[in-house]
Specification:
single chain, about 280 residues, alpha+beta, 6-stranded antiparallel beta barrel, 6-stranded antiparallel β-barrel, elongated
């Protein structure tokens, strides 16, 4: 209390001035309609501005919840799309089948660790064996493919990033279906190379590169990137430079893709090779 009294005594002149100014403004606005309107409009303008800034602040802090909601919604849409594609696909079905089987299932996850500056980069996710994750599952985000799961514990998993010298993936040029092998050369984290493309294939900068579906890990048609127009010739084939769609430095929410037919395809191919 003593400190408060000392403060009031030290600033009594300023406090008295502000009080008199406030009283004068109140009397002025109350005595004339014009002044009353001006004061009222000014108050509404200030109040509106403050309300807008507060609402923007609230919206910013709600972005995390909104983003997680979008991830869940995208996951449901992917699952429904898989069902629709299966229902409308033309395929041979055994007479005993009553329901067409899905080819892939999906699981959302968050990135807890990630690297882009090494020669062999990996991505750590917050989903593991207890969530149904197994080795060989594909990892993607809304912009495109990211890698393949190579290690799983109870609650976490590690994926070999596309930005890894050991990574290989079958990819194709979307507009003409020519496919080749996609890999990373360890240089720029924004670019990869599509090799084994015949010389006669006509390509233009901006052509879309997508998954071929031949690996039994990723569904066909998932986005990888676009051609830059750079070519490297060698032997009977050319190597094309691909600008990757995902920005590997901004990964947060991802999807795990599990192929439900992968083991069956693998066993069949091994049986044919070993005959």
């Amino acid at each position: 209390m003593r400190s408060l009294l000392n403060f009031l005594l030290r600033h009594k002149t300023l406090i008295l001035f502000l009080f008199m100014e406030g009283l004068a403004l109140f009397m002025l606005s109350s005595s004339h309609n014009y002044h009353q309107t001006v004061v009222s409009n000014s108050a509404r303008s200030i109040s509106g501005g403050l309300t807008e800034k507060v609402e923007k602040g609230r919206s910013y802090f709600r972005l995390r919840d909104v983003n997680e909601g979008l991830v869940r919604e995208n996951l449901l849409l992917r699952q429904r799309l898989e069902i629709l594609q299966t229902d409308t696909a033309t395929s041979f079905i055994a007479f005993s089948d009553t329901v067409k089987k899905l080819h892939y299932n999906y699981l959302d996850a968050k990135v807890v660790n990630n690297s882009v500056s090494r020669q062999k980069n990996f991505i750590t996710l917050d989903k593991g064996r207890s969530d149904g994750v197994i080795n060989g599952m594909g990892v993607v985000c809304s912009e495109g493919i990211l890698g393949i799961v190579v290690g799983v514990s109870r609650n976490y998993s590690v994926a070999m990033s596309l930005l890894n010298l050991d990574f290989r993936l079958s990819a194709r040029i979307a507009h003409n279906d020519y496919f080749g092998s996609l890999s990373w050369d360890g240089r720029n984290y924004r670019n990869a190379q599509l090799s084994e493309i015949p010389h006669h294939v006509i390509v233009t900068p901006g052509d879309t590169i997508v998954t071929s579906g031949y690996s039994a890990i990723f569904p066909p048609g998932l986005m990888i990137g676009t051609l830059t127009g750079d070519k490297k010739k060698g032997g009977d084939f050319v190597t094309l430079k691909v600008e990757l769609s995902p920005d590997f430095k901004k990964l947060t929410n991802v999807y795990l893709i599990g192929s439900l037919n992968k083991e069956e395809i693998k066993r069949l191919e091994e049986e044919v090779v070993n005959e």
